Amino acid sequence: KDTDIMAGVTFMEKTFLMVKPDGVQRELIGEIVSRFEKKGFQLIGAKLMNISNELASEHYGEHKERPFFGELVEFITSGPVFAMVWQGENVIATARQMMGSTNPADAAPGTIRGDFGVTVGKNIIHGSDSPESAKREIGLFFNDSELIEYSKLSNNWIY
Ligand code: UDP
Q: What terms describe the molecular function in GO for this protein (predicted)?
């Protein structure tokens, strides 16, 4: 059984989630961490950090040509963010569902953006949208040594 747990830990899907500066200022770090913990996902890395302009431009590179890019970089570098790596079965898609639609006006009640956000420019949380972006974003924000592999007993009651 131990080997089952370790196999699960080692090969489980990972995603990059980040409480944006508005979420940090609005004291939502604990609330957001709690939602993913209670869901049954496992936190394997986390840090409070300031994002440089370079990292912001790299992270949001796909939006370089969009009209909101300048404001987006300015916003995401305006104060500390809480960067996290979570793992679990289907965690990339499930976390996106738990976050809700990009525009909080369209986000369902019960989702993070639906419960706490009002405008698209201040939508509380970022989450990777695919396995490719998860791998890329985890690599941008975390060194291997900052990701902690450990077995969690409750996984026996989740999987
Ligand atoms: N954004 C914005 N204005 C827009 C669209 C997006 O300010 O019209 C911001 C918003 O903070 C969003 C981020 O750009 O979270 C990235 O956009 P994306 O479409 O990737 O949404 P997400 O993956 O964050 O839901």
A: kinase activity
